[in-house]
């Protein structure tokens, strides 16, 4: 490591003008980034970590922000040190993308939907490097190979919507690395990705950093990712830096209370070993926690047998069905009263479709769904409406599932009003009790969704799902978009409600550490089938199917001494789930490797 930093942030203060006067995004922050090192900036939503990085790119001004104070010193390629805070935007255009690259959180919004991948990759090369078209295209191909995109020649001609989330993120990384920047800023680049793709992208960024000597500023709220990537860590809280130090020191000997609570809220893989039942997390600074395990019962509530859901692929002049997407293929499981079954797997494995098929939000092609003795598949629309009293869903994005024009109390009261369960003052009391249940102040009842944080909105979604006293709740990635400490509180709330009300959950997630914390049973899905199923302890401590083993190997562990390298990861590309209309898949056959622990025998391509 050289003794002169590439970037120095000195006493940075950023303000945003609002109707109620200026709001401070970053109060007084200073830190350095040296060549060839990764500095991770951690903190929760609103801590100012993204604002710091956008200030360095001078992009914060396009979002209504203003650099009110401080210096942003950057060591340019020509050896001159420049204060980026004083530069005009024309000069900044030359630095952006050329000397400072940026990877944004959401790859779909970072790419232009109307241009091909090739056009977007070559644009920066032609502007900054004065390359001709042929040279730029050759370099673009080389970049796609570097980020391990299969069939790069074909990808150059494709549009962003034709690529998966992980592929799109690789394209964004290739674009950021195209001009070999001296500093790479990565703003939550893996938050929206699956475990396996996240593991590959982290290993890829680490390899590119070593090969090119680029300095990396990595912004995240995931402490396991920090343990995997960081050389040094800067912890931010409410616009201020509260702690900074080498990664080992931050994990082994944190000094600030906020850092300690952040680390306490991280579910760690292997924490639940030797514990027979799920139990809530111990949160720092929360007194009187109810940390009793949740045993549940052995009485079956939901029985699913041979569930199959396919989507037609239309094509040709007459829009005929030319093929089918086999989203869920011959899936069977049971859920006991008061217990949680988790379905895990990567995007596109069919876990969300399975959850929606059970509630018949998506119509299955075949299969039996029996909820407490009621055959859901045989119900007409009015029977299904009545059955939904007993089964509710919590969606991944609480903002999209709430009505922005309705007050929160109306949204929670709506299901009860629709079913005629309560009215007048009784309805008011019930809504108030539900707000108490999900630990939200009653004063929030008159608020609108946009006035709430992500975690608070998710609590409202939980309160609304509880309004009808259901027996089963399907939770579809309900905590994946939340900050670590908020996620821990919402998970604890869900387990507390399970213990009190005897709820059963079908918990759909791709986060293995969270699944280990909340589950009684786990089913691992791959290409529409459950490839391994059994009690939580057996799946996590003795995974038998090669896909489950690969999934476990990919999970980042919140310990800087247990870093993974690219050679630890061995993922095969997932085959296409689209088959011709005459394709008849084999039924799922299982082998019981130990009591209650099953693995799939049918060849599913892994």
Automatic annotation (TrEMBL):
Q: Where in the cell is it found?
A: Cell inner membrane
Chief place of localization: membrane
Per UniProt, the keywords (alphabetical) are: ATP-binding, Cell inner membrane, Cell membrane, Membrane, Nucleotide-binding, Translocase, Transport
Q: Could you tell me the Gene Ontology terms of the biological process aspect for this record?
A: peptide transport; transmembrane transport
> Among the entry's GO cellular component annotations, what is one?
plasma membrane
User: How is it placed in the membrane, per its record?
Assistant: Peripheral membrane protein
Under InterPro entries, the record lists:
AAA+_ATPase, ABC_Ni/Peptide_Import, ABC_transporter-like_ATP-bd, ABC_transporter-like_CS, Oligopep_ABC_C, P-loop_NTPase
User: From the UniProt record, which GO molecular function terms apply?
Assistant: ATP binding; ATP hydrolysis activity
Identify the residues that the record assigns to the ABC transporter domain, covering every copy.
9-263, 302-552
Q: Where is this region: Disordered?
A: 566-593
Entries under Pfam families matching the protein:
ABC_tran (PF00005), oligo_HPY (PF08352)
Instruction: Give the compositionally biased regions (Basic and acidic residues).
Output: 580-593
Family the UniProt entry places it in: Belongs to the ABC transporter superfamily.
Q: Which NCBIfam families match?
A: PRK10419.1, PRK11308.1
The protein, known as? Peptide/nickel transport system ATP-binding protein/glutathione transport system ATP-binding protein
The protein's organism comes out as Cribrihabitans marinus
Tell me the classification of the organism that encodes this protein: Bacteria, Pseudomonadati, Pseudomonadota, Alphaproteobacteria, Rhodobacterales
